[in-house]
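[Automated response] Your request has been received and processed.

Submitted sequence:
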Amino acid sequence: MRIVHVTQFIVPERGYQDYYLTDAQQRLGHEVFVLSSRGSEAIDTVRKHYTDAYLYNAGLERFPNGVMVHRVDAYQLSTRLFLRGLGRELRRLRPDWIIVHGVLSLIAPQVLWFAVTTGFEGRITMDDHRSAGNRRRSFSARLACWLFRQVVTPLLRRKCHDYVAVTPETV
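Generated structure:
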């Protein structure tokens, strides 16, 4: 099976589920790819927490576990990224299964748009990472989250085969 993970950031040195899941799937014999931004973190997160963020080179990279990662340029809106050329890369890779890490991001509607406009027949899994600890508290952020849940989330759930909430509060 050809599996493509779509995520805003992936940093192999940190591990995290995106890395370990791709590793396990590859060891099971699947062809596994990751589409991600060049960044290691969102720019405003870097400024707020003074983390040591950096940009990876655009293009293909092979992780130590053998998984191929294609890093693309992205536009940033707050902490959310829009991956440039995502639809084109998904068409090129022709996945059987797309796993989207982070529902409340701009990549989730991008994958939805890809699926609707291309008639994608494969499996789509949305992995929702929201929790009380990573939500913004401003009025505009709460309004954007509410609108996303009222408008985009129902569309995503209709098109997806799996909707995985990582905490009870994300359901």
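Summary generated for your ticket: Residues 78 and 170 are 20 Å apart (CA to CA). The helical segments are 16-27, 43-49, 86-93, 107-118, 139-159.
If you did not submit this request, please reply to this message.
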